[in-house]
């Protein structure tokens, strides 16, 4: 049996630091919102001429008075991602750009993807993203409250917050782009982390009923160990699937799968080291479970 | 938990085979209508254009209020009440009456049978609201009145948008209402929406009006620019004919002048008015005005009584074709703005399909190998179940003709990764039971029973996340929610019916062989 409980305090401290750092990053550095949430225009361009590269593209685009233009390689050497604000929301901007690029590059390029999100739509998308995440956290809270005692709900929700905040913190730290698919990833993380926590909690509650003489400190450790192989196997298969998406699923799914990978790692960790320590700190005992059951009768 | 009746085995087999057949209809062609269904590919996979249009209702509201001032004035004139100082400010109509008439005005506006201010019994609201500010009356649209106005302009606009898109002839366009002031246009397979965008961006309000220098024109005059932006002309506000009078419009080649023109045919009313105007206006310039700009202003040389005519204005064949199309499809009730556009080229779509399918294959292989190494025979059972699960998932998506997007494929891969969870929970539980239980059947039985709550909890939480995502998400993300959500149900089915069936067959044959797992 692995003594997970020996490190409860260490990892609680680590998690607190991670959360504080993440919050500071989110407040002071902020998130790198993509055009979905900030508005603007995105062009994915494929070149068939080696003359077209990041710097020649940047030169061309900067001459067009589009505001802040970002040009990046996208996947391989011939694909580029161009983003700009399109502040005045000019109507025929794409046509103008094509005419302009034709002058320097002729016909040796192709727009593979064009996205243009107006300011009104981006504000709405951001709002509905925030509502979706808050709503899912609230629903999870309600669900776990119905299924377990309040101490368990608190533990599970703290673990969820931890996962969401630290994942977003990593995105802020490395300035990774937040777009619609990241919101989908965060919601899935919420579901996955909850799933993981619930499995361990289910065992803790079962053991609480079984053993009256074992302290919660020991009991959580027993429960973690009993469910450990399941935790490892499920995390492993999920990670295998996600790694396949990350490496082979194409450039568009990279951010999404990265967020999910982070979420699965943090989710697995938090189920063990946050959810359970909340039970220990709240001195959950056999009485907690039994009293509640009597209430229900 | 391990007992299966013959009937149940039959049911499970039939159900699985049915969905596998439905799923395979994506690959083969069935003659049968029921089986010949296909999963729709989202725009991000098949390529195409997604345009979200917003109707700018401001001009419509302005116009309605403008008409209302006249209506109000005339309505009360008949009742011998004089309306003073009537004006429009910030979408409100203000006017004064003498003190004695105030009550009559209020009564008329609040009468449920009033023709001036329609009453909507369903919403318990009038079209207009009136307020006595003490200083004057303030009239504006009520909430319901505004909603009615917006939905009616949306209804008109969507019809015109549909006509214009159909005229261009793209393949299976999808045109839907969003809220009460937006229209969603999905154009599969279209990789350059430039033409459609420019067609939808035009209101196409066509009028024929005389050029005049008479400042005292009864209808008022306005200065308008020519299409080229250089010249200007003063034009009467009196409309001779408008786009509504057109029956047809076609691009034509004028061989004499060697230029492209748009020829048009007028309806009876239009032909009459056009004939009269051209007979009295010989020698005058007739301006052809489209969306506030003059296309051309030819001099009237002859009376045109035939009800047909032509517009010239330095068109190329393309611009003439587009103008004719716009005139045929009619004017939009209000300007449209494209507030969101997402276009994916077909080759990127194909690349995404390939990458997604490759990732699915790799992810699937990795999980299968892992499970086999870890659980041997039970790993094999899990893997067979996983394959059936994948087919059932595809079958359900096919049956409902769901839309598969790139995130949707990611959802399927994720389902593969997470689907083994339930089986793992069960097998691990059985392992524990086997520590103190020597009877295999009893151990397997209680393993299934005791793991059930954890499995249900775990799947319900993921399902909750998927449901929220489905209702809050848009486009491709919705596709992810669909595959993730459907995946939960197919996973539970395959774990509790298919995997359990295989397990029970294996366990009952080998029950005396010591620990099986």
Poorly predicted tracts of residues of chain A: none
Order of helices and strands of chain A: HEHEHEEHEHHEHHHHH
Number of helices of chain A: 11
Q: Name the CATH superfamily assignment of the largest domain in chain A.
A: Multidrug efflux transporter AcrB transmembrane domain
The averaged pLDDT of chain A comes out at: 90
| Biggest interface and residues each | A-B, 68 and 70 residues
How many domain units of chain B? 3
Radius of gyration of chain B: 35 Å
CATH homology group of the largest domain in chain B: Multidrug efflux transporter AcrB transmembrane domain
Portion in helices of chain B = 40-55%
CATH class category label of the largest domain in chain B: Mainly Alpha
Structural class of chain A: alpha+beta
CATH fold name of the largest domain in chain A = Multidrug efflux transporter AcrB transmembrane fold
Strands of the largest sheet of chain B, in order across it?
13-12-18-17-11-14
Q: What is the general shape of chain B? A: elongated
**Would you count the extended β strands of chain B for me?**
21
In total, the number of strands of chain A is: 6
Say what oligomer this is: heterodimer
Let me know the largest β-sheet of chain B: 6 strands, mixed
């Amino acid at each position: 049996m692995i003594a997970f409980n020996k490190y409860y305090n260490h990892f609680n401290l680590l998690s607190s630091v991670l959360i504080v750092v993440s919050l500071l990053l989110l407040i002071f550095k902020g998130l790198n919102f993509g055009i979905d949430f900030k508005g603007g225009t995105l062009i994915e361009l494929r070149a068939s001429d080696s003359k077209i590269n990041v710097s020649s593209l940047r030169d061309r685009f900067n001459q067009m008075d589009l505001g802040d233009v970002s040009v990046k390689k996208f996947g391989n050497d011939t694909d580029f991602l161009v983003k700009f604000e399109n502040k005045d929301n000019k109507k025929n901007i794409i046509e103008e750009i094509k005419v302009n690029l034709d002058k320097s590059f002729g016909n040796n390029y192709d727009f593979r993807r064009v996205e243009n999100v107006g300011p009104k739509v981006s504000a709405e998308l951001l709002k509905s993203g925030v509502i979706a995440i808050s709503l899912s956290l609230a629903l999870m809270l309600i669900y776990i409250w119905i299924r377990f005692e309040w101490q368990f709900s608190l533990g599970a929700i703290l673990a969820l917050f931890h996962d969401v905040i630290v994942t977003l913190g990593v995105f802020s730290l490395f300035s990774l782009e937040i777009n619609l698919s990241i919101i989908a990833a965060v919601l899935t993380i919420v579901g996955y982390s909850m799933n993981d926590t619930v499995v361990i909690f289910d065992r803790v509650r079962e053991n609480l009923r079984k053993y009256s003489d074992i302290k919660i400190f020991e009991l959580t450790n027993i429960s973690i160990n009993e469910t450990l192989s399941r935790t490892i196997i499920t995390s492993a298969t999920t990670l295998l699937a996600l790694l396949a998406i990350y490496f082979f699923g194409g450039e568009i799914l990279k951010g999404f799968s990265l967020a999910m990978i982070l979420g699965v790692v943090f989710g697995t960790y938090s189920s063990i080291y946050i959810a359970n320590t909340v039970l220990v700190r709240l001195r959950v005992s056999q009485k907690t479970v039994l009293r509640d059951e009597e209430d229900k009768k | 938990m391990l007992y299966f009746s013959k009937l149940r085995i039959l049911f499970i087999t039939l159900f699985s085979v049915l969905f596998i057949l439905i799923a395979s209809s994506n690959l083969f062609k069935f003659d049968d209508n029921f089986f010949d269904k296909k999963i729709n590919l989202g725009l991000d996979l098949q390529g195409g254009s997604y345009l979200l249009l917003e109707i700018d209702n401001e001009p419509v509201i302005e116009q309605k209020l403008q008409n209302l001032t006249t209506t109000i004035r005339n309505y009360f004139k008949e009742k011998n009440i004089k309306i003073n100082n009537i004006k429009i400010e910030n979408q409100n109509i203000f006017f004064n009456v003498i003190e004695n008439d105030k009550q009559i005005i209020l009564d008329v506006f609040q009468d449920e049978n009033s023709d001036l201010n329609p009453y909507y019994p369903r919403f318990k609201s009038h079209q207009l609201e009136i307020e006595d500010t003490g200083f004057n009356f303030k009239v504006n649209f009520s909430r319901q009145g505004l909603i009615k106005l917006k939905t009616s302009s949306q209804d008109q606009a969507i019809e015109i948008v549909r006509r214009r898109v159909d005229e261009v002839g793209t393949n299976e366009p999808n045109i839907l209402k969003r809220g009460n002031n937006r229209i969603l246009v999905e154009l599969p397979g279209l990789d350059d929406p430039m033409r459609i965008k420019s067609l939808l961006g035009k209101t196409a309000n066509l009028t024929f009006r005389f050029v005049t220098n008479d400042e005292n024109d009864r209808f008022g005059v306005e200065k308008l620019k020519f299409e080229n932006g250089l010249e200007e002309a003063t034009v009467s506000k009196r409309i001779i004919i408008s786009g509504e009078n057109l029956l047809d419009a076609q691009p034509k080649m004028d061989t004499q002048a060697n230029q492209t023109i748009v020829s048009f045919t007028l309806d009876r009313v239009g032909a009459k008015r056009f004939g009269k105007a051209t007979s009295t206006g010989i020698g005058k310039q007739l301006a052809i005005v489209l969306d506030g700009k003059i296309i051309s202003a030819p001099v009237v040389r002859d009376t045109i009584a035939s009800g047909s005519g032509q517009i010239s204005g330095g068109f190329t064949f393309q611009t003439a074709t587009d103008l004719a199309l716009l005139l045929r499809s009619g004017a939009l009730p209000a300007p449209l703005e494209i507030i969101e556009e997402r276009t994916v080229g077909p080759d990127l779509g194909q690349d995404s399909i390939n990458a997604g399918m490759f990732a699915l294959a790799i992810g699937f292989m990795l999980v299968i190998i892992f499970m086999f190494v870890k659980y041997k025979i039970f790993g094999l059972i899990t893997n067979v179940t996983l394959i059936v699960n994948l087919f059932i998932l595809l079958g359900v998506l096919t049956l409902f003709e769901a839309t598969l997007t790139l995130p949707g494929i990611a959802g399927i891969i994720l389902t593969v990764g997470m689907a083994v969870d339930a089986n793992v929970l069960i097998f691990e539980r059985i392992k524990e039971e086997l520590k103190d239980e020597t009877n295999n059947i009893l151990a397997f039985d209680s393993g299934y029973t005791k793991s059930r709550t954890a499995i249900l909890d775990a799947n319900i939480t993921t399902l909750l996340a998927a449901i929220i995502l489905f209702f809050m998400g848009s486009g491709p993300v919705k596709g992810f929610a669909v595959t993730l959500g459907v995946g939960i149900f197919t996973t539970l089915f395959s774990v509790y019916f298919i995997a359990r069936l295989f397990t029970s067959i294996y366990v009952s044959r080998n029950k005396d062989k010591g620990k099986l797992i």
